[in-house]
Write a structure and sequence with these properties.
Helix 4 links the parallel strand 2 and strand 3. The chain is an alpha/beta fold. 38% of the residues are buried. The strands form two sheets. The protein has a seven-stranded mixed β-sheet, sandwiched between helices. It has a four-stranded antiparallel β-sheet with strand order 8-9-11-10, with helices on one face. The structure holds pyridoxal-5'-phosphate. The site of pyridoxal-5'-phosphate has 13 residues, from helix 3.
Length: 342
């Protein structure tokens, strides 16, 4: 049985002009472009070949194992559209987690099965395995958003051994984590898909570039259903440049990690804070006495946090800012405690 919808086997993917010919030194009269040279008069490379070469080298995979999307959100959408029949398809997820899995499933008229994380934010394996038996896709986010923790390696291995559908491991925050990427296990688990993004550690959220890594058979299907020019040429160029200059990114990650450490300790000192959960990402999940009250107070002072108290009782999600931003946050929480007589 194949993982994707049977009608896609017959799909004749659109072959764009630049699929067939990418040599830009030739005289290109094939794509009805404007002939007058400017930075953007040509269509982008639909297969992002240059970008994939560099990524393949850095990630130690083959270019055929890489899909590049308009953000990893596009990869999530395409995976659902490839694997799940509208009306009868199903995905599994483990709440609380990234909201887009559910949203994109709903948009595609695909059912969502939830096997909630345990109280220490780990997989409830027996429940997940039994509930996901007839799911085409299982979404696991590690480090998980909004809880910030890595999912235990042994549990994910067990899931990958027993699951029938594809297992999608979303590693949007992996660059901030102490654990290794699941990309290293692609050859061991043929139904594994790993998602990464340039939106977080790389600081390129505005460019909308995300990646999926999987076996070539899976990548091929995603490529056949994606919009031909899904990643624009400016984004391809900027991401290439970022990949060739890894030092700046590394410096920023180290600063974020030291700020994460500092902020964790400082927040724990406040009486309005109950606990700060350990984080493997660039945000902190912080349980407060009155989360929504603190959230509104800070909002009035011009500081925007993410109120997650509907998902996890009295919890705010705080992105790690610059040292100055974090200082301001701390001083405003200090002021909040004075104003509300803590
Ligand atoms: C931010 C985030 C993404 C979004 O990635 P884009 O590449 O910007 O679409 C994906 N997954 C998780 C868990 C995220 O938190």
């Amino acid at each position: 049985m194949s993982w994707y919808r049977p009608h896609l086997k017959q799909l004749q993917a659109y072959s764009a002009a630049r699929h067939e010919f990418s040599d830009t030194s030739a005289i290109l009269l094939d794509a009805n472009e404007n002939p007058f040279d400017s930075a953007f008069n040509r269509y982008p490379d639909p297969m992002q070949r240059e970008l994939k070469e560099v990524l393949a080298q850095q990630k130690q995979v083959r270019t055929e194992q890489i899909f590049i999307g308009n953000g990893s959100d596009e990869a999530i959408d395409l995976l659902i559209r490839a694997a799940c029949e509208p009306g009868s398809g199903k995905i599994a997820l483990c709440s609380p987690t990234y909201g887009m899995y559910q949203v994109l499933a709903q948009i595609n008229n695909v059912a969502v099965v939830d096997a909630p994380l345990t109280s220490d934010f780990q997989l409830d394996l027996p429940k997940l395995l039994s509930k996901s038996l007839d799911c085409e896709l299982i979404f696991i986010c590690s480090p998980n958003n909004p809880t910030g923790n890595l999912i235990a390696t042994e549990d994910l291995s067990t899931l990958l051994e027993k699951a029938r559908g594809l297992v999608v491991v979303d590693e949007a925050y992996i660059d901030f984590a102490s654990g290794d990427s699941w990309i290293n296990f692609l050859d061991q688990y043929p139904q594994l898909v790993v998602l990464q993004t340039f939106s977080k550690a790389y600081g390129l959220a505005g460019l909308r570039v995300g990646t999926a890594y999987a076996q070539p058979e899976i990548i091929e299907v995603l490529n056949s259903i994606k919009p031909p020019y899904n990643v624009n040429s400016y984004s391809q160029k900027q991401v290439l440049e970022a990949l060739r200059n890894p030092l700046e990114k590394q410096r920023q990650i180290e600063l974020v990690l030291s700020e994460r450490n500092r902020l964790t300790k400082a927040l724990q000192e406040f009486s309005c804070v109950q606990q700060v959960f350990p984080s493997e990402a660039n945000f902190l999940l912080c349980q407060c006495n009155k989360a929504t009250e603190l959230y509104r107070y800070l909002l009035k002072k011009g500081i925007v946090l993410r109120d997650r108290s509907k998902v996890i009782s009295n919890c705010l999600r705080i992105s790690i800012g610059t040292p100055q931003q974090n200082d301001l946050l701390l001083s405003q929480i200090n002021q909040y405690e004075k104003d509300t007589l803590y």
